[in-house]
Amino acid sequence: MEWEKLLCADRIRVIRRKSSGRDLRSEFEKDYHRIIGSASFRRLQDKTQVFPLDQSDFVRTRLTHSLEVSSFAKSLGQNISRKILRDIGDESFLPEYQGDVGDVLQCAGLLHDIGNPPFGHFGETVIRSWFGTHMDAIMWRSADGIEKPLSAWLTPQMRQDFCHFEGNTQALRVVTKLHYLVDEHGMNLTKGLLATIIKYPVSSLDVDKKSPDICRHKMGYFYADRENFENIVEACGIPKGRRHPLTFLLEAADDIAYRTADIEDAYKKGLISYHALLDELEDAAAESDKEEERAVIGELAENLRERYEKGKQRGRRDPGAYAIQNWVVTVQGRMIADATDAFGAHYREIMDGSFAGELLAGTGGGAIAGVLGDIAYRYAFRSKPILKIEIAANQVLSFLLDQFVRAVLYYDTAKGPDVISEKLIPFISDNYMAVYHHYAEGCDEAERLYLRLLLVTDFICGMTDAYASRLYQEMNGLLLL
To answer: Where are the domains of the chain?
Structure first.
């Protein structure tokens, strides 16, 4: 792969207006302003990171998480650019690319969760589970009177798009179509940026969660978006089924942000104490059978203890909070350094498309991520408050899928929706409806049916936690306006 192509500044819809010479921003800097000015990005402030519908000003939302990922990603981009120029010596990487790499990664960090449904990753699970249960159960009748289950009308890829539904995949759809800024091309961002946010560059038919190749663990694009996907990867010169090199840095930035943030948020919520965290780190170091891992985790445990003592010496009312907040910064710095070194060590493999693992795997930073992930899972993700919210989220999202899938089944057909369904259609965004009609034109019955099912997942993924909850209550007569 070549950096000149990888940093492709072209857009899917060509902008033909003449430059006045007054706008000195690069195309990637223009992307940044398009993103932060969008309603899709603003909605992240009311979407779950870990703790749904939390009223605390401290606990992170998808918006604050995305800002942190953006910051880490840009830092990694700056580090890697200097390493390529000073140490690796790739002559194809020009000095002026440094700014572009940082800008692309900064924007990619802002976008990486923009397609996530309400209630965090559990929302994705609910959508996949719902379609897995209902795809064979819901019957649909064609214009010529043939009635078959939904699964029988759809192609294998169309079916698997719903059974492997992913927020990562939805993000590409949001920015290339659903955010109706001017037309059906969404935000019309640069192709270099779009390629960077595609973490899994395969279709739903090629997903293999057990594959040693990380690129195949999830799907990266819907059947409906295959042309945009092919356009993007071709323009950037990316081999089939391979990642953009900057995607590895984006993924590392996401890991660094959420692994540390989950611990900090769990402390603020009272789910883990300073002493429990210290005990967990010491136990993990003692139980590891790898010398390097024992040293890394043991060093972090000692660092946490030292910061706690310093907090006490300084008379802090909560030395545990002082210790953890400062300790998190140290952990993040270590993980950023390890990700930078790993990218440099695997540079040739990354650039020729043969690297198939996670950037932090096998590093001290990877060991840290594994330990923190295990602690967060046991203390936060399996806590009763989270489990109660997930049970409620399943009820909310399943109900909305029940109602709106039924509503769209015969929309835009000769039969038309029933009386109740007709009342539900206006709830769906006019922008989403416009996108549906644009891409449904000229399609056969089965593909239009597929696009209407996507219309429902588009609508639900665009909801905030609060809106989904309120709509559920209103439609059940629990909240009358």
So the answer is: 272-382
Neighbours of 246 (CB within 10 A): 25
Among 205, 263, 202, residue whose Cα is nearest residue 230? 202
CA distance 273 to 197: 36
Neighbours of 113 (CB within 10 A): 24
Compute how many other C-beta atoms are within 10 angstroms of the C-beta atom of residue 288: 18
- List, for residues 298-310, the tens digit of each pLDDT value: 999 999 999 999 9
DSSP 332-348: HHHHHHHHHHHHHHTHH
Structure tokens at 444: 């056969």
The residue type of 54 is: D
Half-sphere exposure of 443 (CA within 13 A, CB side): 18
- Read off the pLDDT of residues 45-68 as tens digits, 9 standing for 90 and up: 887 655 544 555 555 688 999 999
What is d(CA 47, CA 122) in angstroms, rounded to the nearest whole number? 12
d(CA 302, CA 412): 64
**In this structure, what token pair is assigned to residue 433?**
């409806």
Burial letters for 336-348: b for 16+ Cβ neighbours within 10 Å, e otherwise? bebbbbbbeebbe
Alpha helices in 244-383 (DSSP H): 245-268, 274-287, 291-313, 319-345, 347-352, 364-376
Averaged pLDDT score across all residues of the chain: 91
Measured between alpha carbons, how far is 226 from 235 in angstroms, rounded to an integer? Answer: 14
Model pLDDT, residue 24: 74
**pTM: predicted TM-score of the whole model, two decimal places:** 0.93
Q: Which residues contact 378 (CB under 8 A, 6 or more apart)?
A: none
CB neighbours of 184 closer than 8 A, spacing ≥ 6?
A: 177, 434, 435, 438, 439
**CA 116 from centroid of its chain's CA atoms:** 6
Exposed e or buried b per residue across 436-456, where buried means at least 16 C-beta atoms within 10 angstroms of its C-beta: beebbeeeeebbbbbbbbbbb
Q: How far is residue 222's CA from residue 228's CA, in Å, rounded to a whole number?
A: 10
Report d(CA 132, CA 164) in Å as an integer: 9
Task: Give the integer Cα–Cα distance in Å for 121 and 323.
Answer: 29
Give CA 460 to chain center in angstroms.
16
For 403-412, b where at least 16 C-beta lie within 10 A, e where not — what string? bbbbbbbbbb
H or E element at residue 384: helix 384-408
